[in-house]
Amino acid sequence: MTENSHKLLVIGAGPGGYACAIRAGQLGIDTIIIEAGKPGGTCLTVGCIPSKALIHAAQEFETVARAVSGDNPFGIAAEKPSLDFSKTMAWKDGIVGRLTGGVAGLLKKAGVTTVTGWARFRDGKTVEVETDAGPRVIHAEHVVIATGSEPVELQSLPFGGSVISSTGALALTDVPKRLAIVGGGYIGLELGTAFAKLGAAVTVVEAQSRILPQYDADLSQPVAKRLRELGVSVLTGAKAQGLTADGTALHVETADGETRAIVADKVLVTVGRKPAVSGWGLDRLDLDMQGPFIRIDEQCRTSTRGVHAIGDVTGEPMLAHRAIAQGEMVAEIVAGRKRAWDRICIPAICFTDPEIVAAGLSVADAAAAGIAIKTDLFPFRANGRALTLGREDGFIRIVARADNHLLLGIHAVGAGIAELSAAFSVAIEMQARLEDIAAIIHAHPTMSEAFHETALKLLGHAIHV
Ligand code: FAD
Ligand code: NAD
Predict the structure, then answer these.
(1) Is any atom of ligand 1 closer than 6 Å to the C-beta of 44?
(2) Ligand 1 close to Cβ of residue 294 (< 6 A)
(3) CB-CB neighbours of 403 under 10 Å
(4) Distance CA 250, CA 447 (A)
(5) Mean pLDDT of each 10-residue bin along the chain, 465 residues long
(6) Is the pTM of this model over 0.70?
(7) Ligand 2 pocket check: which of 273, 322, 349 to mutate, most ligand atoms within 8 Å of Cβ?
(8) Mutate to test the pocket of ligand 1, among 18, 54, 147, 150 (most ligand atoms within 8 A of CB)
């Protein structure tokens, strides 16, 4: 058995863990990272990246399919499109391969030692790893737990056979003819929209009274409309009860109390993710928990000295860019720099059609915090660029303080709006006021002008509405 000591040991090479290790390596810290699977974690291998590749390919296919039916305003017509789904998936896998290989290269370049295997804690400063070359024991002064999260399984619909998680959906070899999705949140709607565009007959079963309940109804409404246009059937206030005896359909109790059987080749269960806290010796550490998550402070310190935790294992929002920011911060803290979590907002994007961006406080958040606000929106139907793209659905809404006009939140829904998220978070983090946004020239014709116009509208002098 080999035994080594390092200054920093990171468990899990997802966005949190690899960002932490790379930054630590850059700072000259002797760092080792242990990963059971591929570098990149959930995000690069079975999450953000493969899902966005599939979403994009599906959009391309749907554009051609609409041309066949003449359902576009551009006068474009086409013959029947065909889809070689194995090529689509191979293209997606190629992107994943390039990125996971890239992360491995970046770790090496930063001087980080990478070990492939499953880590288990002996105590707060020692882990054992089973590797192909045999067991290893690693001691470290500082440990970072970045073990991520895993899909929530429903007791009535255990994963296996036709019941799949997002990981299974991203590894399908054929587009299912009939796809039932339990959970109309991020994953259910991102993947559901993609499979609908690829030709699947999709039914979404959502327990709450509307899809995307984490966003306000104004934001989710354009998404619901587009799902209807795509022929996706959405059952809200509905409970999935399990497969029928022959396994060919999903029993659902609808909002009005009736039981329906939805015939489905695959049932995709996307009812949330839970922190990955088992199998690595959590019981060996005396860690305080916060619900199912590891409790951390503003420096991502756990209740055990020398043990930090970052990313999905520490709580909501379970987003890659939060994990990355925490990882960088912890590396700098281990290097002795004075750092603490001081971010005002963590933007969130739902890659549905249209996309949704949420940065900072919503109207409801501000009301709950008792802050007096000014709020208004600018619709894309009054934005030249949106019209030239044939997509005038959606809007940008600003929430600002009533007294000093400080931007508190920016929420938007629109085609391709994800790329505007940086403008929104820069404005909030730089503590811009409505007057600042109003004074900045926004290039024409772009959808970003709607951001400018929202600020002008709130100041009482919008030009284009
Ligand atoms: P993870 O990425 O989960 O990585 C944890 C790593 O730790 C894994 O590789 C695991 O193998 C390893 N590990 C765990 N335990 C051990 C152990 N004991 N020993 C060795 N290795 C171990 N977020 C976004 O911001 N944008 C998106 O568009 C987005 N899309 C998503 C789409 C899907 C389908 C899914 C499932 C998730 C998506 N997410 C998205 C969420 C995002 O993937 C996570 O927030 C992010 O990956 C969390 O990073 P992490 O480093 O905390 O953990
Ligand atoms: P989610 O929390 O986004 O959505 C789960 C949905 O399932 C909710 O609408 C919930 O009301 C519903 N639900 C729960 N139990 C149910 C039941 N028994 N029957 C029917 N509906 C039920 O979770 P997710 O879609 O699984 O995604 C998990 C997490 O992954 C997200 O919260 C997010 O942190 C991350 N993610 C992010 C992105 C992105 O940033 N674009 C994309 C995918 C995933």
Answers:
(1) no
(2) no
(3) 10
(4) 41
(5) 95 98 98 98 98 98 91 88 96 98 98 98 96 95 98 98 98 98 98 98 98 96 98 98 97 96 98 98 95 98 97 98 98 98 97 98 97 98 97 97 98 98 98 98 98 98 94
(6) yes
(7) 273
(8) 147
